């Protein structure tokens, strides 16, 4: 094969002239602006069309959902008398997608660590930096926004140098907004990031680092070729499942998608196979050619595992089909989202949904509400528990209602996580208090600079997904940033707390909690429901129970008066209509045993979670 | 549903045209075999009380063409038209002159009202003829005059004897006046005298209510009506509650008040026969009101008055000026009407009869309703003994939850 001169237009560039890198940055620290500036400087977009181009892209994104990944882009760069091809690879943006971030990092040899010169590094950025270091990526530390009056480049250069072990003078200083320093940064990418290595003659192996669903083209799969080559008009095979697909198109992004003759070692591009669901094109999987394919996949592939479960219910029961269709649509683009139908006495028909983490849950819920016009209520999130009974059987519990009630429990396991919190040092006491109150164990603490601290804790995942974020934010006036990753499991003394209304359990309020917290949960929920459930014609006990043991009790007193004083000739029509209306209202009531409860009361009891932690925050301020 | 009914048979308030009362033959079937009553609405008051949302006006609120003389003219026309519409009009078994403040008409005015009824419908020989009156506009002369004119029963608005309670209610009479008026009425030959009480007024203490009841019992009347204060939308009282000047009456306090007054009245030999009404004997019960509750027919004359004939309900336009103007053109002043469906009539029957001490025959309920009645008895809301006897009768506790029981029985 003849080797081309390096070019942004033509593929099969010799690996020695290729550089693959990504940008690790906190949201708002200027990643998109820097990427746009790079497109401009490398000439793939002319300066005067820059604005139009950018706007076009926004329009398409708005129309089709977020499907265009402008930052997986192939750029030409000439430096030190040599043409190069540099691939800028995008990393998924949030904390629950650690695994997917790790795959994007795996596709690179280097990373720009981009930090706002007025704010310093954030916990999530730090976590991604550690991931990059574990992947042996060459790190180029960069401070952005040095044009801001509030910028403290010297302070944060020292902080970055301290974290990655370089000299403060090694930290580049740029302004993505003005373009200041970006050219030098591109030069350093070529000089510092090692070229990719791979076997051109070996059977093809390419790693999927992202796959997105596009309404018009089906699934667009982003790959980085490690060995061999991928060419169009050949069949490919996904090594995790063995499924084969026709290749409809192989291309590069420069910055628009362009079909190409194929992709060689170290090159980054996209595949289109006509597949309609991202589950058939999984991040981390290895793509090989169907004929004379590779024997061994690339290391590191993992199935996405839901870690957090919650019941999602439409507030208006007639929206159930809308919710089902909406979940079906979201799943096309979200391989990690799982769901199955569930019914609840209190909330009606809904879905038990599995998420990678709390943010994944929140983003999914927000998208369902915003993009599909749904009004949803979610049950308190729970993690996955392993319950071992005395008879040796193991039960995996993703829903409190599945907690074993027959047989004696020998041991329960819960997932744990490693948590990193970065905050101004004045809040260390408050953060430690919070973490200890959530069964945390301190793993370490480092001063990043004089007044900024990194705290590392081991915490049960269940404690983080409850109201940890809100509590942390309110205790640190919003200054703390947080990252967590799963870290195996531990045994714990867990119990299921049921909330009983007149002796009948209300499913939506059952929760698995540590035995030390059972009383406070039971107390909180019984009190809350007593406030929310209207008085009935009889006294209604609200109890919290662990098994058959009652741990908290409140009573809704019987209503004493429900009668109109006057009912004479002129009152009859009006009174009849009032009763008819009340009868209609009665039909909308949920009945638990004999207790009639308006659904709003259940919804309010579940939503109170946020409101309450918010109030706590106000108290502290 | 109400909408369908209106478009099919009714007219909307404000678009009345001559002869727009739709009385199907079925409504007139059996007329005269059921008790027949006449209600006359007197829409005048000297002052407006803060809690009152009735259709009544002070002199300053009325425009021209709405003076009491105009109203009386209109009333005569309406009663004449009514008698014509009914073909052979039945004699009135009961007449009830309410308001407003009927006593403001004076003895001659009230006599003229009753004469108008006599001329249009006639009076049954043992007719019950009641007028409401406010203690401050009554006198021995008034009572003597109306007794002579044929009235048999007087209902006096007493409300309370506590001055601070009367102030919240905007009542102008002195606390001792109602008891005095009751004595005057009895001296004038009225065997049947009622006192109205309002309980649960913000600021009323238990001892205030007790004092009011002591006064009622001392007056020796044979009938008492007691109403929990309702804060009606659009009243001055509602505005004061909204502004936070006075608290909303508390249901638990109202329930305790009811239990207290019921016990005191029963002890004095006044027995409840409707949720808010107590009488010393069967003869002392208000037959006119029983007509409302037992599905009787009545013609309601006067501005805003409601009528019922054989499953058709209608109501007059509210404003006295429009009322008289419409009648001057020879048309009935119908403001709106509805023909009741079988389902409506069932709901009304359960809702009204359940409030009575005699209760509701169980065979008036469907299977689901009868099942619920047994459950309500198990909950202590219906009397088990009466249930075994085939009737749904509220227990003492059940009376305070009557609306809830009705919702259960109509499933």
TrEMBL record, chain A:
Keyword Transmembrane: no
Keyword set includes Membrane: yes
Enzyme Commission number: 3.6.5.n1
Domain Tr-type G: 16-197
Annotated GTP binding sites: 28-33, 144-147
PROSITE patterns hit by this protein: G_TR_1, G_TR_2
SMART domains, sorted: EFG_C
GO process annotations (BP): positive regulation of translation
Primary location group: membrane
An example molecular function term from Gene Ontology annotations: GTP binding
GO cellular component: plasma membrane
InterPro entries: EF-4 (IPR006297), EFG_III/V (IPR035647), EFG_V-like (IPR000640), EFTu-like_2 (IPR004161), G_TR_CS (IPR031157), LepA_C_sf (IPR038363), LepA_CTD (IPR013842), LepA_IV (IPR035654)
Keywords in alphabetical order: Cell membrane, GTP-binding, Hydrolase, Membrane, Nucleotide-binding, Protein biosynthesis
Enzyme class: hydrolase
Record's bilayer topology term: Peripheral membrane protein
Pfam annotation, one family: LepA_C
Catalytic activity: GTP + H2O = GDP + phosphate + H(+)
Compartments (UniProt record): Cell membrane
Protein's job: Required for accurate and efficient protein synthesis under certain stress conditions. May act as a fidelity factor of the translation reaction, by catalyzing a one-codon backward translocation of tRNAs on improperly translocated ribosomes. Back-translocation proceeds from a post-translocation (POST) complex to a pre-translocation (PRE) complex, thus giving elongation factor G a second chance to translocate the tRNAs correctly. Binds to ribosomes in a GTP-dependent manner.
Sequence similarity: Belongs to the TRAFAC class translation factor GTPase superfamily. Classic translation factor GTPase family. LepA subfamily.
PANTHER family associated with the record: TRANSLATION FACTOR GUF1 HOMOLOG, CHLOROPLASTIC, TRANSLATION FACTOR GUF1-RELATED
Name of protein: Elongation factor 4
Species for this entry: Prauserella isguenensis
UniProt lineage: Bacteria, Bacillati, Actinomycetota, Actinomycetes, Pseudonocardiales
């Amino acid at each position: 094969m003849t080797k081309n001169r390096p070019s942004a237009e033509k593929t099969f560039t010799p690996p020695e002239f290729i550089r693959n890198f990504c940008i690790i940055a906190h949201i708002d620290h200027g990643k998109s602006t820097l990427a746009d500036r790079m497109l401009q400087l490398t000439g793939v977009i002319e300066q005067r069309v820059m604005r139009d181009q950018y706007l076009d892209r926004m329009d398409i994104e708005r129309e089709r959902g977020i499907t265009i990944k402008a930052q997986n882009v192939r750029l030409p760069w000439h430096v030190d008398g040599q043409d190069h091809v540099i691939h800028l690879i995008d990393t998924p943006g949030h904390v629950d997608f650690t695994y997917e971030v790790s795959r994007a990092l795996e596709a690179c040899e280097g990373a720009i660590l981009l930090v706002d010169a007025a704010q310093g590094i954030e916990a999530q950025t730090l976590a991604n930096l550690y991931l990059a270091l574990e992947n042996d990526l060459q790190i180029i530390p960069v401070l952005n926004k040095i044009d801001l009056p509030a910028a403290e480049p010297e302070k944060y250069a020292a902080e970055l140098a301290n974290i990655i072990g370089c000299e403060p003078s090694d930290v580049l200083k740029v302004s993505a907004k003005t373009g200041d320093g970006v050219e030098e940064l591109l030069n350093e990418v070529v000089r510092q990031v090692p070229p990719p290595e791979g076997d051109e003659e070996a059977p093809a192996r390419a790693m999927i680092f992202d796959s997105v669903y596009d309404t018009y083209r089906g699934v667009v799969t982003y790959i980085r070729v490690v060995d061999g080559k991928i060419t169009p008009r050949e069949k490919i095979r996904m090594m995790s499942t063995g499924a084969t697909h026709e290749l409809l198109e192989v291309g590069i992004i420069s910055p628009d998608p362009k079909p190409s003759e194929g992709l060689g070692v170290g090159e980054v591009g996209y595949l289109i196979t006509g597949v309609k669901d991202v589950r058939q094109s999984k991040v981390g999987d290895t793509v090989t050619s169907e004929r004379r394919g590779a024997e061994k996949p690339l290391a590191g592939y993992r199935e996405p595992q839901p870690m957090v479960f919650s019941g999602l219910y439409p507030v208006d029961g007639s929206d159930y089909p809308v919710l089902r269709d909406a979940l079906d649509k979201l799943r096309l683009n979200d391989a990690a989202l799982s769901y199955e139908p569930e019914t609840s006495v209190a909330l009606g028909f809904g879905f038990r949904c599995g998420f990678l983490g709390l943010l994944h849950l929140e983003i999914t819920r927000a998208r369902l509400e915003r993009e599909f016009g749904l009004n949803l209520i979610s049950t308190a999130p729970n993690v996955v528990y392993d319950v071992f009974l005395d008879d040796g059987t193991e039960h995996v519990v993703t829903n409190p209602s599945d907690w074993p009630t027959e047989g004696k429990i020998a041991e329960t396991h819960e997932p744990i996580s490693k948590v990193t919190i970065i905050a101004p040092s004045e809040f260390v006491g408050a953060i430690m208090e919070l973490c200890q109150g959530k069964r945390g164990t301190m793993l370490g603490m480092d001063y990043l600079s004089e007044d900024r601290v990194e705290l590392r804790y081991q915490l049960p995942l269940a404690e983080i997904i409850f109201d940890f974020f809100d509590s942390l934010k309110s205790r640190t006036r919003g200054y703390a940033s947080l990252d967590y990753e799963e870290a195996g499991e531990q045994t714990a003394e867990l119990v299921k707390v049921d909330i009983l209304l007149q002796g009948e359990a209300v499913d939506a309020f059952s929760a698995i909690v540590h035995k030390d917290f059972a009383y406070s949960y039971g107390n909180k929920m019984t009190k809350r429901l007593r406030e929310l459930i209207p008085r009935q014609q009889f006294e209604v006990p609200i109890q919290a129970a662990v098994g058959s043991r009652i741990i908290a009790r409140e009573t809704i007193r019987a209503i004493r008066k429900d009668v109109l004083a006057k009912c004479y000739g002129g009152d009859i029509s009006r009174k009849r209509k009032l009763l008819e209306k009340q009868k209609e209202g009665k039909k909308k009531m949920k009945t638990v045993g004999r207790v009639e409860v308006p659904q709003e009361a259940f919804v309010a009891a579940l939503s109170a979670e946020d409101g309450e932690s918010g109030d706590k925050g106000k108290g502290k301020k | 549903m109400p909408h369908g009914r209106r478009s099919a048979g009714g007219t909307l308030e404000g678009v009345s045209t001559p002869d727009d009362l739709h009385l199907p033959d079925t409504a007139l079937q059996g007329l005269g075999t059921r008790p027949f009553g006449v209600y006359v609405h007197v829409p005048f008051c000297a002052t407006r009380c803060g809690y009152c949302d009735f259709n009544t006006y002070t002199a300053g609120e009325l425009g021209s063409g709405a003076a009491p003389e105009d109203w009386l003219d209109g009333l005569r026309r309406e009663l004449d038209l009514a008698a014509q519409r009914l073909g052979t009009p039945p004699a009135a078994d009961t007449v009830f002159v309410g308001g407003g403040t009927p006593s403001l008409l004076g003895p001659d005015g009230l006599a003229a009202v009753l004469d108008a009824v006599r001329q249009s419908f006639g009076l049954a020989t043992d007719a019950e003829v009641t007028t409401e009156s406010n203690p401050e506009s009554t006198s021995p002369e008034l009572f003597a005059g109306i007794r002579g004119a044929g009235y048999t029963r007087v209902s006096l608005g007493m409300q309370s004897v506590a001055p601070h309670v009367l102030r919240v209610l905007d009542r102008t009479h002195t606390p001792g006046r109602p008891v005095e008026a009751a004595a005057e009425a009895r001296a004038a030959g009225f065997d049947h005298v009622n006192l109205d009480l309002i309980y649960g007024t913000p600021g009323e203490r238990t001892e205030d209510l007790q004092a009011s009841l002591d006064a009622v019992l001392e007056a020796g009347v044979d009938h008492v009506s007691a109403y929990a204060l309702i804060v009606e939308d659009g009243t001055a009282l509602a505005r004061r509650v909204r502004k936070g000047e006075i608290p909303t009456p508390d249901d638990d306090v109202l329930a305790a008040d009811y239990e207290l007054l019921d016990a005191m009245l029963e002890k004095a030999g006044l027995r409840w026969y409707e949720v808010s009404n107590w009488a010393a004997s069967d003869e002392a019960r208000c037959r006119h009101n029983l007509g409302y509750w037992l599905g009787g027919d009545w013609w309601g004359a006067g501005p805003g008055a409601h009528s019922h004939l054989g499953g058709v309900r209608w109501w007059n336009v509210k404003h006295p000026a429009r009322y008289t103007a419409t009648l001057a053109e020879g048309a009935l002043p119908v403001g709106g009407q509805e023909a009741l469906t079988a389902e409506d009539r069932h709901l009304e029957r359960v809702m009204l009869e359940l409030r009575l001490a005699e209760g509701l025959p169980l065979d008036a309920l469907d299977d689901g309703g009868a099942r619920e009645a047994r459950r309500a008895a198990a909950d202590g809301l219906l009397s088990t003994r009466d249930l075994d006897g085939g009737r749904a009768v509220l227990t003492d506790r059940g009376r305070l939850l009557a609306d809830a029981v009705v919702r259960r029985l109509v499933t």
